[in-house]
């Protein structure tokens, strides 16, 4: 797999890869990434084809997906962390 280019975006790092008969687009933001793969023959043959595909709407939907991923991760972590017992927060006063 080799990098064939990048697509500029203010909040995402977008990298385009080529391997055999496939182009991949990786979107990265912080701890999260999404990858979309396209076979040649689906109208995605060149970097220019991918650049035309990755418009504002596509990027907005990717950002929504990343927000969903963040929410899922946060909820999973909170389920695993011990919950503080409110009764143990204060010393008993006699």
List keywords for this structure.
94 residues, alpha+beta, four-stranded antiparallel beta sheet
Structure notes:
With 94 residues, the protein is α+β, with helices and mostly antiparallel strands. The protein has one domain (2-80). The protein has helices at 47-53, 56-80, and strands spanning 2-7, 13-19, 22-29, 32-39. Strands 1-2-3-4 form a 4-stranded antiparallel sheet, with helices on one face. The protein is elongated and about 75 Å long. The N and C termini lie far apart (70 Å).
The CA-CA distance between the termini, in Å, is: 70 Å
Major beta sheet summary:
4 strands, antiparallel
**SSE order in H/E notation?**
EEEEHH
Mean pLDDT: 90
Radius of gyration: 21 Å
- Domain count: the total is 1
Strand order of the largest sheet: 1-2-3-4
């Amino acid at each position: 797999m080799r990098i064939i280019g990048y697509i500029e975006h203010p909040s995402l790092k977008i990298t385009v890869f080529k391997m055999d008969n496939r182009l991949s687009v990786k979107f990265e933001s912080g701890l999260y990434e999404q990858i979309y793969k396209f076979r040649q023959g689906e109208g995605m043959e060149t970097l220019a084809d991918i650049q035309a595909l990755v418009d504002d709407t596509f990027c907005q939907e990717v950002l929504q997906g990343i927000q969903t991923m963040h929410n899922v991760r946060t909820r999973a972590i909170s389920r695993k962390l011990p919950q503080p017992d409110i009764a143990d927060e204060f010393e008993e006063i006699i």
